[in-house]
């Protein structure tokens, strides 16, 4: 059976500002809608402005507090860009109470020896370096909140450690280590660190990796999005420092 997901009670995120990094993707959209329905002011960060605008409208349509859009391309972003983002969150929204990382750069299965250097650097940047640098920029704001949370999204280690998963696989393995270290560094106090390991989902990344797979074989990312929103809420206090594994055991 799946690991127990904390209940997301109505209004669990009311009054909270949540930054979703990679909000335009399949899991990002599902998480944004779940957070908005739970009362959060959702900051939609991504590079596809039109998709973010569509999601903005969806959030308003479900009665969520007015969201915000923060366009940013993680591939070329610098520590200064993240510092400016933190300043904007503090100035315009009074701070931030949670951040979740759903952005991913995956370009298909490729042997390591054939990966172009520029592609390798981009995959490491988006999937690993950007989360760390964003956390560094936001830590002062997160610590000002009475209860705050960081959520990393992992991938199945048995899958991404295998041949041809390239820079994405390497970065996801390292991200698990980043989560573990950061969680231990914040094992107490108002800031909680969590990780989410979703079950296989019907997303663009999944289609690119398993192009021969029937799309209906996997579920929509709704469950994972709701679980991510729950981890950002106080109801997840008992899961501090843990990986919430949504996979069905073999």
From TrEMBL:
Pfam families the record matches: adh_short (PF00106)
UniProt KW Oxidoreductase keyword: yes
Cross-referenced SUPFAM superfamilies: NAD(P)-binding Rossmann-fold domains (SSF51735)
Family in the record: Belongs to the short-chain dehydrogenases/reductases (SDR) family.
Official protein name in the record: Short-chain dehydrogenase
GO molecular function annotations of the record: oxidoreductase activity
Keywords, sorted A to Z: Oxidoreductase
Keyword Nucleus annotated: no
GO cellular component, as recorded: membrane
């Amino acid at each position: 059976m799946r690991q127990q997901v904390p209940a997301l009670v109505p209004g669990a995120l009311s009054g909270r500002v949540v930054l979703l990094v990679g909000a335009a993707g399949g899991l990002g959209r599902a998480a944004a809608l779940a957070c908005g329905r739970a009362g959060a002011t959702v900051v939609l960060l991504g590079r596809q402005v039109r998709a973010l605008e569509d999601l903005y409208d969806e959030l308003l349509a479900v009665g969520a507090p007015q969201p915000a859009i923060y366009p940013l391309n993680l591939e070329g972003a610098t520590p200064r860009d993240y510092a400016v983002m933190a300043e904007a969150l503090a100035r315009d929204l009074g701070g931030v109470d949670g951040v979740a990382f759903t952005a991913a750069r995956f370009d298909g299965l490729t042997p390591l020896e054939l990966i172009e250097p520029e592609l390798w650097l981009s995959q490491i940047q988006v999937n690993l370096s950007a989360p760390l640098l964003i956390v560094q920029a936001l830590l002062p704001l997160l610590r000002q909140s009475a209860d705050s949370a960081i959520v990393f999204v992992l991938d199945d280690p048995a899958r991404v450690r295998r041949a041809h998963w390239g820079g994405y696989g390497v970065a996801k393995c390292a991200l698990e280590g980043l989560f573990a270290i950061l969680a231990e560094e914040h094992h107490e106090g108002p800031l909680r660190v969590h990780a989410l390991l979703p079950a296989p989902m019907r997303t663009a990344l999944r289609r690119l990796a398993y192009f021969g797979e029937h799309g209906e074989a996997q579920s929509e990312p709704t469950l994972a999005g709701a679980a991510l929103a729950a981890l950002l809420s106080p109801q997840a206090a008992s899961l501090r420092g843990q990986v919430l594994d949504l996979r069905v055991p073999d």
